[in-house]
């Protein structure tokens, strides 16, 4: 797919969400294999909204890291948002393996 890894935050600053001018629904790819992962990333980052427009179908590892970092001390929120392990490139660039985040075992 063409594009960059997502999701992408939607920031509305022109009152387009008010009743007189409702916001246009964002483009979302509900059938994407990473949709649930992106939904959890957006929730963990406390975003009001996000879009899949321009996404390559991959999850932005930087956003995933930020989401995991925001949940580090929020044990109750870790039960709500199920974030996957962060991928890190090994010395062999063709292989990707999970990167363990300090203080989080990844087990539920």
Structure description:
The chain is α+β, with helices and mostly antiparallel strands and 108 residues long. It has helices at residues 35-44, 61-71, 75-80, and strands spanning 4-6, 8-9, 50-51, 55-59, 86-89, 96-99. Strand 5 and strand 6 form a beta hairpin. The radius of gyration is 16 Å and the shape is globular. The mean pLDDT is 77.
Features:
single chain, 108 residues, alpha+beta, two-stranded parallel sheet, two-stranded antiparallel sheet, 3 helices, 25% helix, globular
List the helices and strands and how they pair.
Layout: E1 4-6, E2 8-9, H1 35-44, E3 50-51, E4 55-59, H2 61-71, H3 75-80, E5 86-89, E6 96-99
Parallel strand pairs: 1-4
Antiparallel strand pairs: 2-3, 5-6
């Amino acid at each position: 797919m063409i594009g960059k890894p997502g999701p992408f935050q939607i920031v509305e600053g022109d009152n387009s969400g008010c009743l007189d001018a409702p916001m246009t629904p964002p483009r979302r790819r509900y059938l994407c294999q990473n949709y649930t992962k992106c939904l959890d990333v957006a929730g963990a980052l406390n975003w009001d909204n996000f879009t899949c427009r321009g996404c390559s179908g991959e999850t932005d590892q930087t956003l995933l890291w930020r989401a995991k970092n925001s949940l580090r001390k929020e044990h109750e929120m870790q039960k709500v948002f199920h974030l996957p392990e962060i991928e890190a490139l090994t010395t062999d660039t063709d292989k990707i393996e999970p990167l363990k985040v300090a203080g989080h075992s990844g087990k539920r």
